[in-house]
Structure prediction request, 266 residues.
Amino acid sequence: MTEATLKRASVVVPLAPVRACGAVACRDCGVYRLCAALGLEGDELSLLERVVKRKLIFKRGELLFRAREPADYVYAIRSGSAKTCVRTEGGRVQITGLHLPGELLGLAGFDSREYTCEARALETTSVCQVSMHQLEEVAERLPSIHREMLRIMSGQIRHYEQLLLLLGKHNAERRLAAFLLGLSQRFALHHYSPTQFNLSMSRGDIGNYLGIAEETVCRVFTRFQEEGWLTTRRRYVELHDLERLTAIAHDPGRRAAAATALTSVA
Prediction:
């Protein structure tokens, strides 16, 4: 390891930028296009009062909803973050998603009229609670709303397809690199920093989500930091080399090399 790399790996980084903790602007929210389709304009764009029931705040660890509860609302995250998970018949918990400011929770309940998973706040999280029944009524009268709902649902389906592909990548380094790049892109989409953010999921949750052991997650983070590709301090992450992380995530040749390197430090 070079002297420059050692210095980078040992540097004490500042706390995450305040911007990452602020409430997402309405124009960056997952329901923004629904608001625009309703003909609302201006900086204070929001759904009609009878559609957005209220704004709620959940503390870390609190449940937004449970699996098999009646799906009465869609939740738009304004600030904070939440994870979704399902429980198997044997009681095992599988994390299925990390949800960031500007994103929606609960859309899968439109079909069955009950939530298919549970959602839990990972930190203090502010949400807009959107009436699913009222939203559906508005969508029936306005084709533009219906189209936007389909677009949002399509995006979530694509997310789960990408997760399945990610879980099929057996190398731990490739999975973690792809996970970090995905977060970077999602933060950028909502006008947050794509290279500096708080990772609200614990190392254990990340391992559960990616299908690898918590110890392996910690080991890969350490290797990435030693190589100078990123810096971590508790849950704060700063990405230094997006190009290298992209190569790890997508280059089959690099994947094989990474597998060898990871085995050598195991």
Observations:
- Residues 248 and 255 are 6 Å apart (CA to CA).
- Residues 1-21, 40-47, 254-266 have pLDDT under 50 and may be disordered.
- The chain has two domains: 3-17+171-265, 31-165.
